[in-house]
Design a protein that fits this description.
Strand order of the largest sheet: 2-1-3
Order of helices and strands: EEHHEHH
Distance between the termini: 66 Å
Shape: elongated
Number of helices: 4
Largest sheet: 3 strands, mixed
């Protein structure tokens, strides 16, 4: 199948082969390579995070299209959302946890 990300071909959007590998993982686990066309829109984050987001979206869509694939996708961990977000900056600190430079003298 043809994978289009943000209106551009997968090869041009995800230039690194590892990122393309990540995006194609759900199809390989499900044994459905070249059977579906994908049109994805991603915003925010870096390329690696976007590749992960596309992988998650493809996995969810595959599960909706073919419910019997859920077990295989879940075992591979593709249906779990990575809920990590940036910790907020606290007042009295330089960053989230880093304190301002301390001078003894």
């Amino acid at each position: 199948g043809k994978i289009t990300v943000n209106g551009r071909d997968q090869e041009t959007y995800f230039a690194r082969p590892t990122l393309r590998l990540i995006v194609n993982q759900p199809f390989q686990v499900a044994g459905r390579e070249n059977q579906y066309d994908v049109v994805a829109t991603v915003k925010g984050g870096g390329l690696s995070g976007q590749a992960g987001a596309v992988k998650h979206g493809i996995s969810k869509a595959l599960q909706l299209a073919e419910p019997e694939l859920r077990a295989a996708l879940k075992a591979a961990g593709f249906l779990t959302r990575d809920s990590r977000v940036v910790e907020r900056k606290k007042y009295g600190k330089a960053k989230a946890r880093r304190s301002f430079q301390f001078s003894k003298r």
